[in-house]
Design goal:
about 75% helix; mainly alpha; single chain; 1 helix
């Protein structure tokens, strides 16, 4: 199987057993990194969602106070 590192193409058939283990680990960590990046994106979206809920709650509270004060 061909793969690219630092813009250079290599073939797994030319790797030693140690190289094949390193390639396997590299592939695993690359997948893990992608999963973690997706998780970070999800967490950031949830942080923004709940932050907005809190801000909206205070905004609604301020609107209610203004209505009460006008009466």
């Amino acid at each position: 199987m061909k793969f690219t590192i630092n813009e250079k193409e290599y073939d797994t058939d030319n790797l030693s057993e140690e190289g094949k283990v390193a390639f396997s680990r590299l592939t695993e960590y690359d997948k893990r990194k992608a999963n973690l990046q997706n998780e970070i994106t999800d967490v950031n979206l949830l942080i923004q969602f709940y932050s907005n809920k809190i801000v909206n709650e205070f905004t609604e509270e301020e609107k209610s106070k203004k209505k009460v004060n006008k009466k």
